[in-house]
Write a sequence for this structure.
């Protein structure tokens, strides 16, 4: 992401989405969960190498400008770790109209059932459907 999004909106012919997402990406604080990436000097970025439970709970408690939400993009391994630690409060799932026969399952090795409550759905013109769930902790 770091090699693309900071300047994607500046490229000739950049789409409206790329321009908007590039601006958002440059402003938002990023959290990277990685066992290998240590000491990287990335602007507006926190790198978590260990103590995942404590570090994520610290971030969730901070209130910088009133937004303490954390969005996780594209990492099944980090998602599995956060799910096992019961740190995910909601899911935005994007269902693409393509069936693949392999890959890393998003919900692998989940020991306890996680009940979800559907909040919203949205279908995009490209056929992608967004499902927005909250975790039902009752």
């Amino acid at each position: 992401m770091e090699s693309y999004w900071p300047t994607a909106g500046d490229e000739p012919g950049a789409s409206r989405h790329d321009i908007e997402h590039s601006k958002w990406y440059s402003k938002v604080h990023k959290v990277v969960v990685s066992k290998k990436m240590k000491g990287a000097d990335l602007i507006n970025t926190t790198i978590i190498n260990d103590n995942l439970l404590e570090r994520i709970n610290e971030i969730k408690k901070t209130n910088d400008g009133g937004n303490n939400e954390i969005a996780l993009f594209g990492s099944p391994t980090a998602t599995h770790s956060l799910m096992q630690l019961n740190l995910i409060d909601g899911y935005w799932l994007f269902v693409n109209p393509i069936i693949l026969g392999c890959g890393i399952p998003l919900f692998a090795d989940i020991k306890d059932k996680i009940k979800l409550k559907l909040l919203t759905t949205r279908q995009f013109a490209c056929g992608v459907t967004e499902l927005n769930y909250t975790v039902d902790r009752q």
